[in-house]
User: Fold DUF1801 domain-containing protein from Splendidivirga corallicola.
Amino acid sequence: MNKNSKVDDYLSKKAHPMHAEIERVREIILTVNPEIEETIKWNSPTFMYKGNMASYFMNAKKHVSLMFHKGALIKDNTGLLEGDGKETRVAKFSDMQEIESRKSDLEAVVKEWIRMQDEG
Assistant:
């Protein structure tokens, strides 16, 4: 898993009420592919694979909110991604149980992003 110590520091200082859930989503994404990287961009933990893939919306306090920057381009057969904006889509998780039950959906969305980026 390609964890970035800057993200570790950011998350520990942020003391988000859903810290454990944020960490679990992070683990799921980072284990999909060893080439996925993370950093802090836009004052938020951001996942990258050949471009910006997704960032946490850290102001959400009652759920984990993960914005996929070009989510409208991702073929999401799982129904995980929400929204109808021109470019972005959001995945929301209300608790650890939902994260675990939607784990394969999240992995599928991330794999589809990787496939799109690899095909260029």
